[in-house]
Amino acid sequence: MKIALDAMGGDYAPATTIEGAIEALNEYKDLSIVLVGNEAEIKAALDERKCADLPITIHHASQVVEMDESPLAALRRKKDSSIRVAVDLVKSGDADSMVSAGNSGVVMATCLYVLGKLPRVERPAIAAIMPNLKDHFILLDAGANVDCKPLQLYQFAIMGDAYARFTFDMEKPRVGLLGIGEEDVKGNELTREAFKLIKSSHVNFIGNIEGQHIFSGDADVIVCDGFVGNIALKVSEGLAEAMGKMLKREIVEKVSGKIGALLFKDAFKSFKKKTDYSEYGGAPLLGISKPCFISHGRSSSKAIKNALKAAREFHRQGILDVITRELKEGLSGREAVAVKE
Questions:
Q1: Global pTM?
Q2: Superfamily classification of domain 1-120+287-318
Q3: Digit-coded pLDDT (tens) for 75-94
Q4: Is the per-residue pLDDT at 277 higher than 70?
Q5: Cα separation of 319 and 175, whole Å?
Q6: Where are the domains positioned within the chain?
Q7: How big is the chain by its Cα radius of gyration, in Å?
């Protein structure tokens, strides 16, 4: 399969994106990658590395979207940006999916404008994989939609359930709705109405999940609007980083300095790996008609490699076809009545 990689996206591009592409191609022999961006810069970076035998091609894009640009301005003024060109390659069939660590708002808007949504999807959602005490869970929406309607949260639950089944290899993922109380009558109007819709669906709905239980491992999929989801995601990243530093400092100070650090070296390494966003690579835009992945702006080459891996698996498993079918089947019978009400 062929993936279009926005080589200019991210804080450390194009060096890290190119290095990540090379790492992915060395590991996955069924991949080919199109590096999209400034041809001269990409070629210079490739010439410094031993990758002449790898299936890499370059597709020139004359513009780059900055991290602080608005989606609307980028769509209007930068039609030859590396983001837009990568998405266009997917639309034309010259690539099977795309990955970008660039401006997430612009990636989202461009995918929506160029590729469109799956049938019956009102809003796409960013599905972020995060660690918990038992293994991992999927949080969606992680930032694509600030304001949502109950029906959209219902659709997020359907899409998240399908994604979790394939990604985590489980029959019935436990789906929870992020709220301020376990009882179905608690929350705002959005969560109370969404609760009714999700409860009527075919997913294994376990009810409301409170903030302190996000990482308990009780839910495999946690649904919320993008405003809440993005805050939860960023707070989690910051807390994990701060906790790692605090633990290391306490151990060094309390357990005889360097000896303490050495004793807990493996534990620190394991903790860092579990909480490191680069281990999960990128998050798919569930609801877009073609596979599109957004990576962290601070992505390392490892994160890019893992994002390409995630895009590869997403395409190979045909998750979009599953989501399309289940959204179509879901809005029938009892679920259709609930939505109408």
A1: 0.86
A2: Isopropylmalate Dehydrogenase (3.40.718.10)
A3: 999 999 999 999 999 999 99
A4: no
A5: 18
A6: 1-120+287-318, 122-279
A7: 21
